[in-house]
Amino acid sequence: MQRNLPPFELVYPSTAQDAVNLRSECYSSCYLAGGTHLIPHWRTVERPPELVINLKRVAPWNTDDLVNTSWLTPLATISDLQKHMFSHPGFSGLSTAAREFGAPLIEPLATVTGNLAAARSNCALAAPLITLAAKVHYVSIVGSGHVSVDDLFEKPGCTTLPHGALITAIEIPTPPPNSHGAHLSLRGGTTSSPLIVAASTLVELNDDGTVRGGRLSITNAASTPREVIAAQEILRAHTRLDDIVGDLGQAAADAADPDDDRWGSAKYRKRMTRVVTERLIKSIASIPTTEVATQ
Amino acid sequence: MTHSVSLTVNGQDHTLEVDGNQTLLETIREKFHLTGAKMACEEGRCGACTLLVNGNAVASCVVLVSDLDGATVTTIEGLPSEGELHPVQEAFLGCTALQCGYCTPGMILSSISILDKEPNAGENEVRRKLSGNICRCTGYVKIIDAIQLVQRDRQIENS
Ligand SMILES: Cc1cc2nc3c(=O)[nH]c(=O)nc-3n(C[C@H](O)[C@H](O)[C@H](O)COP(=O)(O)OP(=O)(O)OC[C@H]3O[C@@H](n4cnc5c(N)ncnc54)[C@H](O)[C@@H]3O)c2cc1C
Predict the structure, then answer these.
(1) What does the pLDDT read at residue A64?
(2) Quick one: A269 and A252 in the same domain?
(3) I need a surface site. Which of A82, A114, B104, B113 has the fewest CB within 10 A?
(4) pLDDT tens per residue across span A109-146
(5) Cα–Cα distance between A266 and A278 in angstroms, integer?
(6) CATH number of A263's domain
(7) pLDDT in tens, A214-255
(8) How far apart, in Å, do the first and last CA atoms of chain A sit?
(9) How far is B78 from chain A (nearest CA, A)?
(10) Full residue range of the structural domain in which residue A124 is found
(11) Closest chain A residue by Cα to residue B3
C-alpha cells in the first residue's frame, strides 16, 4: 500500500535572511535541503513539522557554481563533489568519501550540508572535512558565526549551532603543500551496505617522505564523528609513516567508543577502527616517496 | 497552499498544481497513471521507484515534486520510440536480465543513466552505480551482462 507523506506547509524563501526569519517565527519548522534524510524520517520515525522551509530557491545558492576549491554552498550535493576534480592530493580523502557514499540514487539530491546538519554517527563527509579543518559558516536570528566541523556535533541528531541557525557555507582550507589525504570505509558487504566504520587522514610530509604533521578522524566509531586527537602528536614524529602505522591504529581504537548495533558489536567496530586506520595509513605509506614529495 | 510546477514528462509539457508534501513518485503514479515506477521501501533504498530527472537516475519517493519546476522526467513508459524498444530494454530481453520484473523499470532507467554518463564504465563501477537498485531474483549477473552488451554494441557503432 502506498503511504503519502503527512501534510505540512512548504515555503521557498528566496534569501538566507528570509529563511532564518521564517524559522524563528514558527517553532514547529525546519530547513529542508535535499530531503533524503528528512523525507524517509517523516515516513517512518516522526511527523514533519508544521512549516518546512525549502532552501532550493535561496539565491545565490540555486546557481550552478556550488563547489569550488575552498567553499561548498549549502546546496552542493554528493554528486557535485564527485564531479569536482580537486587537483591537490590533500583533497583526495574528500573525493573518495563522496565517491564511496554508497547510495547512487540519492547522491544527486543529498547535500553535504544536510549530511553534516543531520549529525548522524555515520555522517559520511564529516571525517574528511574534519581532517581538512573545514568550517561551517552560519547565520541565525542573533547574528552570524562559524564553527569548525570538528566542534559541530553535540550528540546524534544535534549540532552545536545556535537554535534555528542556517548553514550558509562550508569553508575548506587548501591543504598545506606536500600533504596527502585519504579516506577508507568498511561496509558490511556490498558498496551500498551499511557503514561499519570509516577513517580519514591528511598527512603533511617532509621532502624525504617522513611525516611532519597531520590529522586523523573517524566516522561511525562513536556516537558522532570525531578527530583522533592523539594522532596529531604521533604525526609530528618526523619518521616514516610505515613506522607509526600501529601507533595510529591504536590511537584510533582508543578514541573509538562505538555502540552495539545490528551490523556489528561494539567490540568488533572498535577492532575494525584499528584495522581500517592501519590500512588507510599503509595506503599512503605505500605511495613511492618521490611521488608523495612531488605532489 | 499549492505550488505550480511545469514539468516535461516523457517529452510532453505539463503544468500542475501540487501540494507541498507530494512526491514525484505519487505524482507520476496517481496524476499521470504511469505505474512502471513502484512504491516499495519508501526510503530511497531499493530503487524500485527510480526515474530519470534531467538525465539523473533518482529515487523518486524522496523527491518533492514542487522542487522540480522546469525539470524533465523520463519514466519507463517514455522509453520506446516509434514503437521500438530502447536498446537497453532490448538488451535486458536478449540477456534475460529479469525474472519477476518488479525492479526492472528502475534497473533499466539506472542502466541508461550509467551508460549515458560513463559509457566506458568497467564492471566494478557499473556494479557500484547499480547498487541502489535491489533485485531479489536475478543475482545481478544477467543485468550486468545486458549493460555490457549495450556498451559493446555502442563501441562497435562508434568505431
Ligand atoms: C538510501 C540512503 C542512504 C544513505 N546513506 C547515507 C550514508 O551512507 N551516510 C550518511 O551520512 N547519510 C546517509 N543517508 C542520509 C542522508 O541522505 C544524507 O545524510 C544526506 O547528505 C542528507 O542531506 P540532505 O540534503 O538530503 O538533507 P535533508 O534531509 O534536507 O536535511 C538533513 C538535516 O539537515 C538540516 N539542514 C539542511 N540544510 C541545512 C542548512 N543549510 N542549515 C541548517 N540545517 C540544514 C535539515 O533541517 C535536517 O535536519 C542516506 C539516506 C538514504 C535515503
Answers:
(1) 64
(2) yes
(3) A82
(4) 999 999 999 999 989 899 999 999 999 999 999 999 99
(5) 19
(6) 3.30.390.50
(7) 999 999 999 999 999 999 999 998 999 999 999 999 999 999
(8) 55
(9) 19
(10) 71-171
(11) A10
Asked whether residue A263 is assigned to any structural domain, the reply reads yes
Domain co-membership, A203 together with A252:
yes
Which one of A15, A32, A37, A101 would you pick to mutate in the ligand 1 pocket, going by the greatest count of ligand atoms within 8 A of its CB? Answer: A37
**Residue A63 located in a structural domain:** no
**Both B64 and B102 in a single domain?**
no
Matching residue, cell 539506472: B110
Distance A53 CA to ligand 1 centre (A): 15
Q: What's the A110 CA to ligand 1 centre distance in angstroms?
A: 6
Q: Tens digits of per-residue pLDDT, B104-150?
A: 999 999 999 999 999 999 999 999 999 999 999 988 999 999 999 99
Q: Is A55 in the pocket of ligand 1 (CB under 6 A)?
A: yes
Q: Are residues A157 and A198 in the same domain?
A: no
Going by their DSSP bridges, the two strands A51-54 and A9-11 should be labelled as parallel
Task: Say whether both A165 and A187 belong to one domain.
Answer: no
Segment A76-112, tens digit of pLDDT: 999 999 888 777 888 899 999 999 888 999 999 999 9
Residue corresponding to grid cell 556490498:
A190
Domain span at residue B97 reads: 87-157
The pTM of this model reads 0.94
Tell me which chain B residues have a C-beta less than 8 angstroms from the C-beta of A58: none
* Residue A108, phi then psi, degrees to nearest 5: -70, -10
Cα(A116) to ligand 1 centroid in Å equals 7
Same-domain check for residues B69 and B118 = no
Distance between CA atoms of A220 and A243, rounded to whole angstroms? 26
CB-based contact A10 B1, cutoff 8 Å = yes
In a domain, A149, yes or no: yes
Which of the 8 DSSP states describes residue A52? E
Amino acid making up residue B81: S
Query: Which CATH number belongs to the domain containing residue A38 in this structure?
Result: 3.30.43
Which of B78, B110, B125 is the C-terminal boundary of a domain?
A: B78
- Contact call for A102 and B42, based on CB within 8 A: no
Cβ-proximal residues to A238 (8 Å cutoff; 6+ apart), any chain: A206, A210, A211, A212
Query: B74 with B94, same domain?
Result: no
The reply to whether residue A9 touches residue B20, judged by beta carbons under 8 angstroms, is yes
